[in-house]
Amino acid sequence: xxxxxxxxxxxxxxxxxxxxxxxxxxxxxxxxxxxxxxxxxxxxxxxxxxxxxxxxxxxxxxxxxxxxxxxxxxxxxxxxxxxxxxxxxxxxxxxxxxxxxxxxxxxxxxxxxxxxxxxxxxxxxxxxxxxxxxxxxxxxxxxxxxxxxxxxxxxxxxxxxxxxxxxxxxxxxxxxxxxxxxxxxxxxxxxxxxxxxxxxxxxxxxxxxxxxxxxxxxxxxxxxxxxxxxxxxxxxxxx
Length: 239
Ligand SMILES: [Zn+2]
Ligand SMILES: [Zn+2]
Description:
Blueprint: H1 4-16, H2 33-37, E1 74-79, H3 82-93, H4 99-107, H5 111-114, E2 123-127, H6 132-138, H7 142-154, E3 162-164, H8 176-183, E4 187-189, E5 199-207, H9 211-224, E6 227-235
This protein binds zinc ion (2 copies).
The site of one zinc ion has 7 residues, from helix 2.
């Protein structure tokens, strides 16, 4: 419980700097109810491999055919647009770390995640790491905060299994193959770390080409012998 002085300070700060919705800017919430209602869910049918929305459930889509993906399946909750995009941007670049909790609240009841709570002892959550220099400058890793919030809500174990060995150049303009080369050998399993579950759910904020989560999955599978699936809050969808 906050001390009286702290409570007054916190009330004063909220008067001076009111909490504003990450998307529309209205006062009062990290992401207002109206913007939460406008998050666009992926699905219900998609590519079972990469999670790309599709008219029917398909084992493989045009986007992931011919790509070497090292995870079993990737799924996302929302399209990376509108409020989902704003929430991720604000979490990543504006220090709005509490948005990770909002993102977990908005996704924990998704059937893919809710189903995991019945499988205690089978799955460990982990997250895509950032290089220490990035964590130092930002103060946190947004994927770690989101995974941590999910782990609390779902009651599943969380382990920081991976490290980023060196900073890599931003990938925004690179295609899947060039991203793969850019990331080569940049991740490894943290020394001395392991898991007691046969499966790992790798958590990230957004799925773009899948190159990053694929490289992380390759390292986890090779070093720990686990089956890796991927979960992201959002996914880019090309029209
Ligand atoms: Zn809003
Ligand atoms: Zn696909």
